[in-house]
Amino acid sequence: MNERGFGKRLAQELPRWEAQGWVSAEGRAAILADFAARQAKPAWASALALAGAVLLGVGVITWFAAHWNEMSKLAKLVLVFLALIASHAGNGFCQTRGAMPKLAQGMVLLSVFFFGAAIMLVGQIYHIDAHFPDGLALWAAGGLLTAWLFASQPALLAALALAAVWTWSEQFDYRVMNWPLLGFLALAAVPLARHDWPLAARGWGGVLLLWLAGWHAQTWIGPLWDSNAHLRLFALQVLGVAGLWTLAQASAQPFARALRGDFLLAALAGAFLFTFPDLDLRLSRRAEAAWPWLAALAVTAAFFLAGVARLLRASELPPPRRALAAALAAAFALLLAVEVVVPRSGSVPALFWNALFLALLYWVGDLGIRHADRQLVNRAFAGFSIWVLARYFDTFWTLFDRALFFMAGGLLLLAGGGWLERRRRALLREIEGNDGRGQA
Amino acid sequence: MNLWLKISLLAAVQVAALATMIADKQWTLNRGTQVVLQTEPVDPRSLFMGDYARLNYSISRLRLDGDDAVGGDREFARHDTVWVALKPDPAGARAVSVHRERAAVPAGLLALKGEVSYVADHDWDRASNTSVKRRTLQVRYGIEQYYVQEGTGRQIERPQGGEKVSILAAVDSRGKAGILGVLLDGKLRYRETLF
């Protein structure tokens, strides 16, 4: 349950607890006062400072782009360096003499924008026509250094956004692997491990997933085109992301806590794609050495299994259910291993994947109920609805007359949707009933 | 670490990064061998940096087959680094050969470093106005953009009255090129300076 919902529920329940004699009147007031004090206040000052920094930064960048020959080179250089230094000095004064930490964060963000403007202006003045993503990489590195030095989440968010554009440009536009991004992400992980920055943590996960997706731009298009290799790589990535999820789920670290939902979603999305019987439709097989794939599989599987083992050890589930969870994890890894080792043929692997995907959805829903996590329950039901729709189109589409099937299928989906919605609501009510008694 | 020390460190690193960009370019312009390159017109705009003239040179497109083919290697892929052997000429430098390794550039010729933009197996023949089977290499040298005041890029890209635009470039010992100036009908119109 979210903080707001919890507060509302607390205010409803406390009079009853007081009437029962479980809580004193003073205790009730103290609980409500403590909860109100811990609630996040609308951060208007912070939001205004950050919005101001963004507007000013964008304004300066476009101003430089528009006014070109109005000033001498030297005047432009002096201006851009002064602007950069002024934003740093502004940050220093806000933190020391003014004691305005919110505005200081705005200044820090502004300095990130000014550094980008300076890179572009220098490029413009001196006609530097380098590899375009290098400029973005330099800008992102500047943002990361700023975030490190001033413990600034907005600066890190800006740096991660720039890293996303950088890696997109390298991998999707230029179609080359952006290996340096891994170094950037490793460095960005250090402040994230030290501070509780959920937004930046999720941004970090998003950039990592984008980098993984960018691998496919290399194999799918261009001289390396080979859909068999593409599928094998995808299977390894899904196993790797699932491994990251297991490790994040087993950790109480705020950085890991913020990331795990997105990794689970990414692993489930990967498993869902394997449920399509036509995934191998354009599979081109080329004679290639199997050992690099097997080596990569061994490393990724070890990573995944280590996470699963940690999760199972920490689990409070009764032994039979723990065994079931272990079997599910093993089946998942085994199916992915088959996708890596044996080139896919026919729709038999898809049948197993469909069964596994449904079992995974059941498990996600069950996890959501046990942890009183509405989001997980909703995701499990949304996943099931998407699965039904997908099978409707790719399996039955060719078997029945379309008009007839639209009618029958439509009725089936309406009835199924209604049943699912009732079931979802019943489960959510059950979660609310179990609040405070939910298992860990 | 003290706050002001952190601020000074960040400012110093950022200024050093920007100064390195300028110094690297200036090194090429000051120490490089001057060479005139003929341009072929095209047009564009940068979202962040404003108007610029996009320059396409006669040495950007290298034919690997046929009568006017350049010498050197034949097998290239996209994003490969190439070394082009240039023979300087006041009327416009000519590409003699293209190589995968710098050491293969014949002595006495200027070695210009480039990156393969794409390799095409068919080329448009202007004389017959048809597509002909001919392996062609499109190469980028890092001197394809010239930033100009807003709205003036077309003067360079598409000059009026049949003016001929060429670029005075400098090629340094690393094979890097930089634009020193713009020539209109052989006369220097723009000259790049440090400040």
TrEMBL record, chain A:
Pfam families: DUF2157
Top-rank taxon: Bacteria
Keyword rRNA-binding assigned: no
Record-annotated DUF2157 domain positions: 16-155
The entry's keywords: Membrane, Transmembrane, Transmembrane helix
Listed transmembrane segments: 47-68, 74-94, 106-126, 138-164, 229-247, 259-277, 289-312, 324-342, 348-364, 376-393, 399-420
Protein name, as recorded: DUF2157 domain-containing protein
Classification of source organism: Bacteria, Pseudomonadati, Pseudomonadota, Betaproteobacteria, Rhodocyclales
UniProtKB/TrEMBL annotation, chain B:
InterPro entries given in the database record: GDYXXLXY
Name of protein: GDYXXLXY domain-containing protein
Species name: Azospira restricta
